[in-house]
Amino acid sequence: MNHRATGEAAPPLPPDERARGRRLAFTSHPLGMTFSMVFSQHLPTLALVSLGASETVVGLQNAFGSVFQPLQLPTLRAVGRVAKRRILMLGQAFAVLGALPLVAFASLEQAGDAAVPLAMASFAAVTAGLTISNTVWFPLLRAYVEPNAIGRFFGLLRSGWHLALIVYYVAAQRWLAANPGAFGELFLAGWVCGLLRIALISRLPERSERTGERIRVGEALALVRENRDFRRYLEGVTASAAVRLCVVPFAIVMLRREIGLTDGQILLTTIASFAGGLASLYLWGTVVDRIGPAPVFRWTSIGMALLYLLLLDMSEPTPTTVFTAVVFFFGFSVLASGFGVADTHVLFGMTPPEAPARVLVVASVVVHLAAGIAPVSAGFALERWLAAADDPLSVYRTFFAALAVLQAVSFLPLRRFGR
Question: pTM of this prediction?
Answer without folding.
Answer: 0.73
